[in-house]
Amino acid sequence: MRNRETVPLIFIILVTALSAWISFAPGDQWLGRDVSVRLGLDLQGGTQVLMKADGVVDSELMQTAATVIERRVNGLGVSEAVIQLSGDDRIIVELPGVSNPEQAIETLRGTGRLEFIDTKGAFLQEGTLVRTSGNPNPVIPGVDPNAEPDPENPAPTLPEEIYESITDGRDLDTRQVALRVATDSVSARPAVTFAFLGQSANSLATFSAANIQRPMCIVLDNIVFSCPVIEAALVGGSGEITTNTQEDAERILNQLKYGSLPITLNVESSRTVSATLGANSVQASVIAGFVGLLIVGLFMISYYRMPGVLATIALIIYSVVIFAIHKFIPITLTLSGIAGFILSIGLAVDANVLIFARMKEELRAGRSLGRAIETGFEDAWPAIRDSSASTLITSTILFVFGNSFGVSIIKGFALTLALGMLLNLFTAVVVTRTFLRITSRFSFAQAPWLYEAGSTVDSDARNQRTA
Length: 467
Description:
Blueprint: H1 3-23, E1 29-30, E2 33-34, H2 41-44, E3 46-53, H3 59-75, E4 82-86, E5 90-96, H4 101-109, E6 114-118, E7 131-132, E8 162-165, E9 178-183, E10 188-195, H5 198-210, E11 217-220, E12 223-226, E13 238-242, H6 246-257, E14 265-273, H7 278-304, H8 306-328, H9 335-348, H10 350-364, H11 369-405, H12 408-439, H13 460-466
Helix pairs in contact: 1-8, 1-12, 4-6, 7-8, 7-9, 8-12, 9-12, 10-11, 11-12
């Protein structure tokens, strides 16, 4: 084989082997990474949360809050979530397959306001609700501020004292919020690093320098998280919050990193949502995909013969690779996403149809097999390029539309279709072309009936002389 066939063939073998390893990884674990198939809310169920804004809000504030919540949901690793406005002051959030619904709810509704307060040397117990100069009237957890007072069961009230805020949560630099492991002489615990900018950074550095060996309480959404003793000045306004569990660290990370909510949201209701379609739909979709792949393969083989066989092999490689990509990224599959995946299988042969039709024309005109292969790809490429570009543009429009209006069904379909189209270019232009170049050098591949080209295909050498 020539170098132009050897290098692509080695690349194809490596990509296929790696994809098969990921697709069929034992226990859905690949090198310690979870590569299990992720299913959407319609296929596996999940949690639905209805949150209501506290106080008077406008549409702009609600839209900003919805955007912040969407970023936090993405930080939780929940794909295909539905975040949509309901009425003037409510947001509906649907979380497919969340492993810890309570933690997810806490992450969503927390405003993400990080403050350091001056307690005048006093230690405050963790979990204490406090009033700060930055937010003197916080919402009391579990108390509806709009509910009528009950004389027999009076609701908890806010404490009288207001602590001075050293920092302003709006000065938090979200780019520097990250997870790390804090190591001390006793143990290693997860921690969240942070940094303040502007006046908050100066205030934090000045206060910490003047209060060495005194407590300074860290407050998140008006709840005391901890009251560490200041060991050294926090120069530059940076520091870290050490937690006891990885779950606490991830919750704080998501609240801080993905922005502060401009309003306070109260959970009005939360419920577990059962799968609307379930395992039966997944099984039916898998069968449909297999049947579709089989029918397409049979058609290609019966109509295009030898090129059809090679195109079918390329189609199998395409299916293995794209399935591995879905598992590795991972991409959450809804029923609409599966539909886009199956549709992309049909689109995957469109390029081959154009190429093989052009090859037939060249062979019937008396061209050599090798030349017909190259001409077929060269002449069909503009049509393949333009059709792929139009599909990608359509997919982009659908994805943006779904992202702007909260229509996640459209987003899933657009994403899987676009991904399939990009991979289709690889299998059609690289895989099928490489296979055709290699097989054309074998004597058995010169038979005319293998290309349905009449008697015009003879040995490659003879055709080269007559071309």
